[in-house]
Amino acid sequence: MNVNEVCKLVEECFELSNGSVSADMISSDIPDWDSLGHFAILEFVEAKFPGVLDANPGLAQASSISDLHELGLKNI
Amino acid sequence: MSFEIEAVEYELGEHQLDLSKIIPDFDKTFDKTGISKVFYTERMTHEMGVVAAEKAFKSSGRSKESIKFLLYVTQSPSRILPGDSVLVHRELGLPPNVAIFDINAGCSGFVQALFMAIKMVETLGPGIVVCSDAYRRKLDPNDRSTNAVFSDAGSAVIIGPDGHFDLVGQSFQVESSKGPEFLTQNHNHGYLKMNGPALWQYTRGSVVNQINELIKSGISMGFETNRLYIHQASKLVVEGISSKVSPKTISIPQNFNKFGNSVSSTLPILIKGDLEEMSYGTTLLAGFGVGIISACLLIAGKK
Question: Which residue from A36, A41, A45 is spatially nearest to A64, judged by alpha carbons?
Fold first, then answer.
């Protein structure tokens, strides 16, 4: 998965409009991405790619789009 | 070593808060937490524990004069020094020849204290474990993740000798390398900050392994775990652990939807109505939280 696909995934997770999330964004830039919102991302990702959380535990500490990419989603 | 759980009582914060009224877009939050109401107190933290302890003395019929030790658990003390165990001792009117200890622990604290109590009852005699936490006054009103889960409450458990329970196993873990950053309060007594996902990831891995290993250890000694009581952190955490525990025949009660996450008191509140059932089977208690510390006990009922 490339970083643009990560942006699309986060848009889908939080039901945001297309193109509203960009690769340079951090969690505080994105509505709903607080600690609870992060759970939503993790669940969303796990539902789409079962086993990804166990294989990439660092995803739990991601706080930006690039973190999500580097800490695990690039491996999908 | 044999012991009795003579009473379990609790005292909630005196005000109930409907979370749907303070958290925007509440349905999405509730989907994760499973918590729609919490309780908060305007009292000093230890006062809830004292009320719970008074209830425990009344329901057990045990005299305060017979108490030989007091273990007091809190991560949100009424004051820094002396420790709040002194306040609790004074307000309960316990006799002077009592060993008192303060345990600075949160969600793992009750299990840690219960372990100590079980060991101490054999040497000293009957004692009481009191837990009390008032996190809500430490929460950033704009932080949805903490406001949506924490609840204020106190609890008390009286432990006596020669009873219906045996401690047949225990397991302790500390993740001190990065754990302290997952739930912190900064030095100027500011707001609590919680890295929920990192904590959740830890529970799904290390805590689940710890629970499953203790279950297996029990089986090897002839004790099949019937009931598992998990610290009621939130729906995500409880269901995440429950889904990975084996075997699937184990009953896993939950009540986070009624009481929220009352920190050190979630397990006493959860077991209060189940003592009779617990005395017929094997029970695992799992407490985990700030630190990250996780403590598990395996208790066999002797009826």
Answer: A41
